[in-house]
Amino acid sequence: MPAVLDEADAAAGPGPEHRPFASLGPEGHRSRMREKLLERGPDALADYELLEMLLFFGFRKGDTKPLAKRLINEHGSFARVLAAPSAKLLESAGLGPHSVSALKLVQAAALRMMQAEVAEQPVLNNWDRLIDYLNAVLAREKVEQFRVLFLDPKNRLIADEAQARGTVNHTPVYPREVVKRALELHATALILVHNHPSGDPTPSRADLEMTRQIQDAAAVLEIVVHDHLILGNGRYTSFRREGLL
User: Fold this and answer.
1) Alpha-carbon distance 210 to 163, whole Å?
2) Phi/psi of residue 65, nearest 5 degrees
3) Distances, alpha carbon 219 to alpha carbons 7, 112, 128, 173, in Å
């Protein structure tokens, strides 16, 4: 039975004794890329170079630059490559479990760092950083996602959790489940968040009704709904700011 090659082995190809060419590109390219990163910092690298280097972890040998450029062309940007669903990435020619895992790990690490920065001080005093974090989490989602930020009595972040995912224009939300989870986390306040994949953050009638239902259910248990944020295409709507809450 023939041996099964993993992604990295496939990229490396047959051993040197079976290859007509000793090298498929300039010698030492990967070393030079690493030196550039360490000596000059990440700002010295173009987006495709950052992606190229991330793909090193999935491919032990071989030129990953063409694949990096193709992925950015397909998805539109370096950030959109990282944010793409794993299943979508695995459909891309040239990618496999090793490289997709590396990409999703970097995305998760970036979001964890941003979340930690938001959690360091009261959320309501750190609004710009909160919006940046939420944009990173939701702005590139292709379907609606409803999230809840659970806050403690000092309005510090206890948890940010996705409560539901829906279609391109609808997400089923159950107020009872939101309040139940708040009680489990001993949260005293909430910020509701969801995205509009259309890019238009204008609240729908369903958004307004759902917000009222959650607010009423939370008020019974003295849990405050500070705001409901809708994100879309670099813009957002704050229910509190618009007088809708």
Assistant:
1) 13
2) -60, -45
3) 53, 31, 27, 17
Query: What string of pLDDT tens digits covers the 245 residues of the chain?
Result: 433 334 544 444 455 455 544 444 545 888 888 888 888 988 888 999 999 998 988 888 888 999 999 999 998 888 889 888 888 899 988 898 989 999 989 888 888 888 788 777 788 888 888 898 888 888 778 888 999 999 999 999 999 998 877 655 556 778 899 999 999 999 999 999 999 988 899 999 999 999 999 999 999 999 999 999 999 888 899 999 999 98
Q: Is the CB of residue 151 less than 8 Å from the CB of residue 186?
A: no
Class of 122-238 per CATH? alpha beta
- Identify whether the C-beta of residue 37 lies closer than 8 Å to the C-beta of residue 45: yes
Look up the pTM and report it.
0.65
Alpha-carbon gap, residue 191 to 119, rounded angstroms: 14
d(Cα 117, Cα 130) in Å, to the nearest integer? 9
Query: Would you list the domain boundaries of the chain?
Result: 7-110, 122-238
